[in-house]
Amino acid sequence: LEPYGLFFGPNTSTANRCMIGGMVGNNSSGTTSIQYGVTRDKVVSLKALLSDGSEAEFNSLSEPDFNAKMKLNGIESSIYNGIFKELSNKTLQENIISEFPKPEIHRRNTGYAVDELLKNSLFGEEDSQINLCKLLTGSEGTLAFTTEITLQLDDSPPTYAAMVVTHYNTLENCLSDVAPVMKHDLHLCEMMDKVILDCTKNNREQLKNRFFVEGDPAALLMLEVKANNEVDLEKQLNKLQATIERSGLSYANPVLRGAEIGMAIELRKAGLGLLGNMVGDRKAVACIEDTAVALDDLKDFIGEFSKIMERYGQDAVYYAHAGAGELHLRPILNLKKSADVGMFRSITTDVAKLTKKYRGSFSGEHGDGIVRAEFIPLMIGQENYELLKRIKSYFDPHNIFNPGKIVDAYPMDESLRYEIDRKEPEIPTLLDFSDSEGILKAAEKCNGSGDCRKTHNMSGGMCPSYHATKNEKDTTRGRANALREFLTISEQKNKFDQNELKAVFDLCLSCKACASECPSNVDVATLKAEFLYQYQETNGYPLRSKLFAYNTKLNRLGSSMAKLTNTIYDSSVLGGILKKYAGVAEKRTFPKVSRFNFDHYLRSFKSQNAENKRRVVLYIDEFTRYLDIDLGKDAIEVLTRLGYQVDLFYGESGRTYISKGFLKQAKKLALANIPKLKEFANNGYPVIGLEPSAILTFRDEYKRFSDDTETTNAIAVNTYLIEEFLSQEIQKKEITPQHFTKEAKTIKIHNHCHQKALSNQKVTFDVLNLPENYTVSIISSGCCGMAGSFGYEKEHYEVSMQIGELKLFPSVRKATEDTIIAANGTSCRHQIYDGTKRQALHPISILKNALV
After folding, report:
1. Of 56, 440, 458, 718, which cross-links 681 as Cys (Cβ 3.0–4.6 Å)?
2. Residues in CB range of 48: below 8 A, 6 or more apart
3. What's the average model confidence in pLDDT over 192-204?
4. Would you say 803 and 467 are in contact if contact means Cβ atoms under 8 Å apart?
5. Which of the two residues, 337 and 414, has the higher pLDDT score?
6. Are 774 and 741 within 8 A, CB to CB?
7. DSSP string, 706-757
8. How many CB atoms lie under 10 A from the CB of residue 334?
9. Is 792 or 327 the better-scoring residue by pLDDT?
10. 242: Cβ–Cβ under 8 A, 6 or more apart, which residues?
11. Which is nearest to 766 in space by CA: 778, 756, 757?
């Protein structure tokens, strides 16, 4: 829509994965509702299947058109006759008006929106036509099956924007500022409290988005103003700032602009998922999180709400749509315990009564569903509730559409996820999951927010297999919940011994995107490694897995007779036999093996090194040592010519063992490497690596192999991708553009998944951008699809290439012949070659070629 200057106004925090059908069913709102309204305001017409299978179209109707509908046959006629009969009753109309939420509350999803059907010339005094889309929107699929939706779009919002983020020492001060700032035609007025902000500290993806947070606020407001030009924007901003200064309630008010605003909004959008980061069984529970009241009532409502929470000994969570009179309020409960399940109901009941006192909506935008539907009679009165039941019967006399929602609701505290007061299973693991209080709770961190269902067109890489298959089982959520279920209910001695789990984890590429992009930090790559280990301990380790796990040993052997090995690999006959025997895809090429004396090569450069900068340790990992020797040579040359004192550290990282679930072997390697790495850290010698999947094991998985947290943390801090190290040195002015050519070149970068998850893509961009006339851009791709052995395996080859075709391959093919393709992962470079026949270079090789 952007090229047409249009957009769909309601903008939910789930916009990168939600569906219009869901938004209509739920009458969704989002952060922009204070400016653009809710989904109900945007639905022009609906086509739907009725409960008898007949088709119907709902749209605006004049009185004659409505009368004509009543003369039809079948259920459609019953619907219009029933609506006319009910809403022609003046006493019933008065009851609706007096009992339903205040009219100024635009977020209102309690029950069916019959109050909206009074706002027309047929049943009311407004000069407009009746449209049953108002009723169907927010009906949660209980009235009809929608097949087509026509929407009213909005002009694109003004392009000039600024955001003031007001920081408060108390929640009360924050709420006191809401009404005054809302007089400034804000496009966004969102709140985050300390609980949510603290959760962002433990999320790699959101840590960088909280750059603007000053001190330790109890709450903050994000206030965005927009205008069509810079002059008008500054006028609006100045007026807003003057109001904030007059109130004097906030202690810091930074102003964000440009990309900074987007980062702040991403932080706010992650709110629901971030609550999954709470360690342990006590979680921020959804039950009262959707209350909406009139803006003038918000402060008093929250004041009384807080007293309810105090009575229950609760430190609740407060966040979201302050400007719309709706805060997402969540008690923190352990729904595995009967006492907290009792509080679950009691708190919900008390808050429902409080919401009714202020004539608010108990469901502002999330819907009634099961958790709130049984409170609808309390919220709108029993007579109006009986009206809703009759409306349901007109549309769906046999109750086939989404039963148990809105009317005749199921109890809120039945069919809960956890067995109440169960004995928690003890599940021993080889990897250390103590940061989550065990592997079961690590899986339970998933709260279903569905961030892993975003498509490849959105930012980020989670989840590459889902991007290719669009299958729920291939999401982070699907995998975590399947594991949780079996670990909870299985009565087998080895709870991991499940073929269903094997199928669920099969297409996980262990890219680790979920470890950073999932707001709840569900790290499926680590869960998969433990699963494979446990499953294979019972069922045996397959031959192909052994070949890939022990790949370094095979490469060491092959490199001793490299010419013969590579000849076999290149042979269509011998290589074909090897692929068939090993279960490798026929179309996949083998990497070339090599052997080289890096120590001798280093000595030749050390003798030329006239400068005397700091001492560094270059890690020659298992891939560089036998597959990418030119890469190791280039790194030695770059570092020594830039004046660094280079020592070499040889060692196998354990990556191939980890990816195949050979955790005993990986742990043995890790425990052997840790003392050496500790010595480097103690001496202040940074350990620099070339292959992200190898060097970053020191930063990530090694923490799960050793209980010496102090040592593994020190090692992690002392471990660098070579781009990270060079970027720091550039910032210190130790490396300057004068070291490199002034020749113009264009470079497109694809970075390794583990770098994206555990580091930062920008360091590669910054390093390659150092030569004065280099034009550098990052390909906005997720995983390349190779993922170590995954792309070699015959049953995974097609999915591997599918993933590459989503973004990476097309972008590489569009690049001109003289454009350099950069990729720092050995698997990534191999995949790019197999998919496009373009030879990608490691960034360090590009820098070596640029040295003067």
Report:
1. 718
2. 55, 56, 57, 58, 136, 144, 145, 146, 147
3. 86
4. yes
5. 337
6. no
7. -S-HHHHHHHHHTEEEHHHHHHHHHHTTSS-GGGB----EEEEEE--HHHHH
8. 16
9. 792
10. none
11. 778
Residues 774-789, mean pLDDT to the nearest whole number: 95
CB atoms within 10 A of CB 157: 17
Tens-digit pLDDT profile for residues 63-120: 999 999 999 989 999 999 999 999 999 999 999 999 999 999 999 999 999 999 999 9
Number of alpha carbons in the 13 Å side-chain half-sphere of residue 548: 24
Phi, psi of 620 (to 5 degrees): -90, 95
- Residues 492-497: contacts with CB under 8 Å, at least 24 apart: 494/534, 494/535, 494/537, 494/538, 495/425, 495/427, 496/530, 496/531, 496/534, 496/535, 496/538, 497/534, 497/535, 497/538, 497/539
pLDDT of residue 196: 87
pLDDT at 270 over 90: no
**Nearest alpha carbon to residue 850 among 822, 826, 829, 831:** 822
Task: List the strands of the sheet with 328-330, edge to edge.
Answer: 255-257, 160-168, 219-227, 188-193, 317-320, 328-330
**Closest to 694 measured CA to CA, from 524, 847, 551:** 551
Which structural domains are found in the chain, ordered by start?
2-155 (3.30.465.10), 160-375 (3.40.462.10), 434-517 (no CATH), 541-560+595-735 (no CATH), 736-852 (3.40.50)
Instruction: Specify the pLDDT at position 47.
Output: 98
Read off φ and ψ for residue 475, nearest 5 degrees.
Answer: -100, 165
Output the pLDDT for position 613.
79
Q: How confident is the model at residue 478 (pLDDT cuts 50, 70, 90)?
A: very high
Retrieve residue 9's tokens. 């106004």
Determine the length of the chain. Answer: 852
Mean pLDDT of 690-708: 97
Cα distance between residue 335 and residue 343, in whole Å: 9
Q: Which two tokens stand for residue 494?
A: 């080895």
Cα 374 to Cα 95, 352, 433, 448: the distances in Å are 20, 11, 39, 23
Q: Do 66 and 121 touch, CB atoms closer than 8 A?
A: no
Say yes or no to pLDDT of 610 above 60. no
Distance of alpha carbon 761 from its chain centroid, rounded?
17
- Give me 770's structure tokens: 């150092």
Residue the block writes with tokens 């998922």? 273
